[in-house]
Amino acid sequence: MPISVLSVASEVFPLIKTGGLADVVGALPGALAAEDVAVTTLVPGYPAVTEALQDGREVHAFAELFGGPARLVAGTAHGLDLIVVDAPHLYARSGNPYIGPDGRDWQDNPLRFAALARAAAEVGLGRGGVPQPDVVHAHDWQAGLTPAYLVYDGWQRPATVMTVHNLAFQGQFEATLLPRLGLPAHAFNMEGVEYYGAVGYLKAGLQLADRITTVSPTYAQEIRGPDAGMGLDGLLRARAGQLSGIINGVDTAIWDPAADPFLPAPFSPRQMKGRATAKAALQERFGLATNPNALLFGVVSRLSWQKGLDLLLEAIPTLIAAGGQLVLLGAGEAALERGYRNAAAAHPGRIGCVIGYDEPLAHLIQAGAEALIVPSRFEPCGLTQLYALRYGAIPVVSSVGGLADTVIDANEMALASGVGTGLRFQPTTTLALEGAIQRAAALHADQTVWKRLRRNAMATDVSWTNPARRYAALYRDLVGNRTP
């Protein structure tokens, strides 16, 4: 039986992206098509989205949507079926979709993303000018009010799914906002949208959606405890029966070393010559000593406490002593940006960094690095280690969340069995990371073992095939259990 899904998100690759959320939202519809699931994605009408929309047609109009008129425009872009919330007073702003030119969140973000959820509810209830979907699937706090609007409308609603990509970002706003949101007064309680005296967008979705998913099984377990639960662990424990973890995949058409336009030469598990070419190009790009035998570590990451990049800074003496090189691409906390610039200046030819984000350079790092370091303190899933597996950069990861679920540690027994794909370390401390770096150096010194690890890594199925199958089963279970 075909299933129709409305996916609701604040970003979607390749139209608008700040992180892995966009990659997931952009890739999942194509993967689900093979499971007889048709996905339409509802996104805000940022300039980059409206400019890319093709064959746009107005399907619904709002006389007023949180401060001005708006309309829903259906069309396609980059192979995606879209419904765009065309509300210039809310979304006609270039650059980062959440942050203004002063580096601060847009003050009207609560209304901007309430509008996204309100529009999603109209479509979900069959009042958006398009057929009513079987399932409405909301992603992260920006879409978190969607289940609330559907529940409190009182009309026959579709099934709902709330996916948490990162529980640390919750969307909490003052209680005085409630009347402006158009939600009833009785919604402000523990069983509704109230969260520690505020309106909690993500909390609302977790409380009121029919099912909750997050992006790895281990993270689904971790967030039920106080350390990773970010204040929502009690709610998640109470709803444990409705909570599951489905690991992310990657778009293997875009992330394909055999056909990647961003690489100087293609390569594959059977023909690896192009990887050496990428390594030389990477060393040249970052001003490192051109050494084909160097243990070149890579990092592609947001620079933040969560990502554990302060630990790597502290471990640099160990990395240098092990004969390693390091290239880093990322941006974030000013102290970390400064720290890596200083490290590059202190170790010319051994460490290089580019502060910012550059998609072609991210591909080159995956293709040219010998190993990719991901020392996150918590990681719902992570995509960078999946790209690393695909491109043969051995992941060196903390044993948390999706990192633990996707990387098989090359311990002695795994090596003997021929199943290791990377290195995991725990606890998430500088000392443990230093130990992993030293383990990587010892393994790299034995090229027979290292090449076997690389073959294992590149043979790992990181596609959306299995995750899409699980999402499709979830949707069918929900639709099959709906009461008429």
TrEMBL record:
Residues 5-237 form the Starch synthase catalytic domain. GO terms for biological process: glycogen biosynthetic process. Keywords: Glycogen biosynthesis, Glycosyltransferase, Transferase. Residues 284-439 form the Glycosyl transferase family domain. GO terms for cellular component: cytosol. Signal peptide: none annotated. It is an enzyme of class 2 (transferase). ADP-alpha-D-glucose binds at K17. Its EC number is 2.4.1.21. The keyword NADP does not apply. CDD domains: GT5_Glycogen_synthase_DULL1-like (cd03791). The keyword Transferase applies. Pathway: Glycan biosynthesis; glycogen biosynthesis. NCBIfam families: glgA, PRK00654.1-2, PRK14099.1. Synthesizes alpha-1,4-glucan chains using ADP-glucose. Belongs to the glycosyltransferase 1 family. Bacterial/plant glycogen synthase subfamily. This is Glycogen synthase.
